[in-house]
Amino acid sequence: MKLKGYIKRSCAVIFCLAAALYADQIATTPDGKQVLLRSDNTWRYATQSDIMANKLLSGEQGTNASGGGSGGATLLAGSGNANKPPVSPDGRRPTTSLLDVVRGDASFDFRKARWGFTRRQVEQSEANPALKSSADKLEYKISLLGMSCKIVYTFAGDNLIKGSYFLEQDHPDPAQYYADFTVLKDYLRQIYGTPVSDQDFWTNDIYRADRKNWGFAVSIGFLSYRVIWQGPTTKTVLTINGGNHAINTNIDYASIK
User: Fold this and answer.
1) CA angle 69, 104, 16 (to 5 degrees)
2) Which one, of 160, 156, 167, 99, lies nearest residue 125 by Cα?
3) pLDDT tens digit string along 55-88?
4) Domain residues of the chain, as ranges?
């Protein structure tokens, strides 16, 4: 109990110093523990994903999540070809840093692409060949904040209209899937700010008051969650849902047009 009180007092002091710099901040207590200080004056022990996200947002680009060096696959930043930047439909050759893309550089709508890109332009924007290709889709694999993830680009005709991240984690405990969802939600909030919609949907309230079992509630179809951000050109939707003890977590970016 004394240790917990000491940590709380330490976090309170550090929070006051960090709040001036970032809404959410990773800090180290005097006894060496890393914590995530939240803008609502709460805190929790930091996960590895929290630490990685904070480094990206604070400009410490270093090695990316996929292990391919700076400029590689992260949540928003694609592993585009640095020697041949993709040309947008209006003829622009946008240049940007990894940090700019993570924070939502207006030059791009999804990773290193803009809505309206052709299949060829999207292929040029990704460093590696597509794993799957069909008439209206291109599919890639990356590591997203340390999580196994599939990327799907969707086309109408030969023009990009949507991009999606599908988590492909394999956890023994449903609570871990919900923890991944929370990490993504916190990360997107740091990039895009307050969502326009943040809703949970319950078909059965039996676990509503028992937060530690929310992952299990998702796995049996009792709970789903949807968070929406709206930008000038893009609608971003983070969802988690499930049933039959399977859980799906994905982020969809779609052209508003």
Assistant:
1) 90
2) 160
3) 555 444 333 333 333 233 334 433 333 333 334 3
4) 2-46, 74-257
